[in-house]
Amino acid sequence: MNKHWKYFFLTAAAILLGSLAPAQVTSDVHVVLTGDSNWHRKISVYDDPAYLRLIQKIRNADASFTNLETLIHPLTQSANPWAGGGYAYSPPWLVDEIKWVGFKFVSVANNHAFDYGADGLRSSLKALDDARIPYAGAGENLAFSRAPAYLDTKNGRFALIACASSLREGSLAGAQRPDLHGRIGIDPLRFKTTYTVDAQTFATLKALAAQERARGTEKDQPGTLTFAGAKYQVGEKFGIHTEAFAPDQEGILASVKAARRQADWVIVSIHAHEGLLSNDDLPAEFLSSFAHAAIDAGADVFVAHGPQKIKGIEIYKGKPIFYSLGNFVFDGEAGIPFLPAESYESENLPWNATTADFRDASSKNDTYGYPASKGVWNNAIAELVFAPDHTLKSVELDPITLGYGQSRSKRGHPSAASPEDAKEIIARFAALSTSFGTKITFENGRGVIALDKK
Fold it and tell me: pTM of the full predicted structure?
């Protein structure tokens, strides 16, 4: 063969093989996070330009996330008597709203997942499957609930692992065995609480426990006591210590480590109402430890939700930890058309009472609880930018409001915050983040986190 033809064929082959090789990510990676979506009404009907710009950011992101704190089902299932609060229900068209906003995947691990039992959760998961919306945090058994959800994009593959520490005991997913089926439910991160008390208090508790243990002895280490479902230890001053249940945490971290090997980007999510009992604005001890452990295991982003209000932001080893972004949608007051008998009984309402009656009674005509708490309605959306090498380049917060002080029919959907509210929201984030050494400034209507560029 003529050497010129040989070079031609070698060059052509190189070009062809190069075109078949996977493209390397060379552009920045954008991630958008929101908090809870307690979502029962359409938000696609609003057309305010500032609002639509926020929606466009969610759509444009490589990965965008919300915690779906509701169930999609036809109201043919029986409600659980112990669920409490606003029993979650959303109609089938909710999947179209999720897609309209542009959320790429959702968490389904939260304390409302079992409001309508196994059938309600199964119906909701099927609706998401049919709509091809990736989700994490629940499944037909523990392995399925703990498995990552994957999202393939031009800027790499994303994995989402989701769990909940705020949950009902009956909602935990169960492990599959060779001789017995697993149990549908959510991925749990349970935790243990130990109370430190002085010697006098400990002696009093021990005397009370002695009567209980006459019917059955429980072994304790010296200086510790298990009584009435709680654990106590003797110390110089009162204190509360929380620690994640080791088998749960180890199982979740194993999933994170697997996702690290199977994906380019890993997000870990948890539904956690818990804060420090001494200061509820700060995350519970076990939650901070778990967040750090998740990043050590390979997570690029850690996002908590559940408190229905904003909490601080931490940058740990160059990775962001959001302890709560508050709410993205919170419209159940006017959006849930039916409630079980237990809801009405809790407010001593008659058998023919309506949901409007229940909302009036439970909120004392909007003067008590969520309607009266401004922090529930003033929240934010987080926009993260990573370099292809996983370096965090920027974190910015878009303040949103959900209609504090407006009527029940008007509040609950997100809108861009007014200049005054935006400044107040970012100031709140800044104050709550100082204990983590995170500095947040207010620039051009947004919150900007100062990152160490070293």
Answer: 0.90
